[in-house]
């Protein structure tokens, strides 16, 4: 019944969709995009409770003044902008490489087919761990260090993963090392890039 367990994320998304209309818009969106000052203050009170939010409101007003001359681009305009092509190519390459590395590596490691669904569940748990860990350390270390550390760890893990896949026919326990390295790769990816 692993497919029922994996569909749990769809249930959570459905619940979020049902309750989303009852939540206010983001205060910064209301102020910066829509220019609705009263709506911004109302959303702050609704989200954060009663209090004095003039400091946060003043910070958003300063941000609005700074970005006043900046044109906000939609998705098609961003895709037509040549200056973002290197970043888009890098993101696309990373996303495709993550999609291609999953089940094929598990099959290459010669894992039993009845174990692969549980390994896929472990991948999802690894993603959750990386999200929780990254959100708790990003303010302390900053994005730059996490990006560099994440890429370095990913490179090291990929070298070890390739080695473990090459040796998996000679040593049966290397197959499980491959699975652990995939989990570590996902955690390093989630913490870094």
Automatic annotation (TrEMBL):
<keyword id="KW-0762">Sugar transport</keyword>
<keyword id="KW-0813">Transport</keyword>
<feature type="transmembrane region" description="Helical">
    <location>
        <begin position="173"/>
        <end position="192"/>
    </location>
</feature>
<keyword id="KW-1133">Transmembrane helix</keyword>
<dbReference type="Pfam" id="PF00083">
    <property type="entry name" value="Sugar_tr"/>
</dbReference>
<keyword id="KW-0472">Membrane</keyword>
<dbReference type="GO" id="GO:0005886">
    <property type="term" value="C:plasma membrane"/>
</dbReference>
<dbReference type="GO" id="GO:0055056">
    <property type="term" value="F:D-glucose transmembrane transporter activity"/>
</dbReference>
<keyword id="KW-0812">Transmembrane</keyword>
<protein>
    <submittedName>
        <fullName>Solute carrier family 2, facilitated glucose transporter member 9</fullName>
    </submittedName>
</protein>
<dbReference type="InterPro" id="IPR020846">
    <property type="entry name" value="MFS_dom"/>
</dbReference>
<feature type="transmembrane region" description="Helical">
    <location>
        <begin position="145"/>
        <end position="167"/>
    </location>
</feature>
<feature type="transmembrane region" description="Helical">
    <location>
        <begin position="115"/>
        <end position="138"/>
    </location>
</feature>
<dbReference type="InterPro" id="IPR005828">
    <property type="entry name" value="MFS_sugar_transport-like"/>
</dbReference>
<dbReference type="GO" id="GO:0046323">
    <property type="term" value="P:D-glucose import"/>
</dbReference>
<feature type="domain" description="Major facilitator superfamily (MFS) profile">
    <location>
        <begin position="1"/>
        <end position="193"/>
    </location>
</feature>
<dbReference type="InterPro" id="IPR036259">
    <property type="entry name" value="MFS_trans_sf"/>
</dbReference>
<dbReference type="InterPro" id="IPR045263">
    <property type="entry name" value="GLUT"/>
</dbReference>
<dbReference type="GO" id="GO:0070837">
    <property type="term" value="P:dehydroascorbic acid transport"/>
</dbReference>
<feature type="transmembrane region" description="Helical">
    <location>
        <begin position="6"/>
        <end position="24"/>
    </location>
</feature>
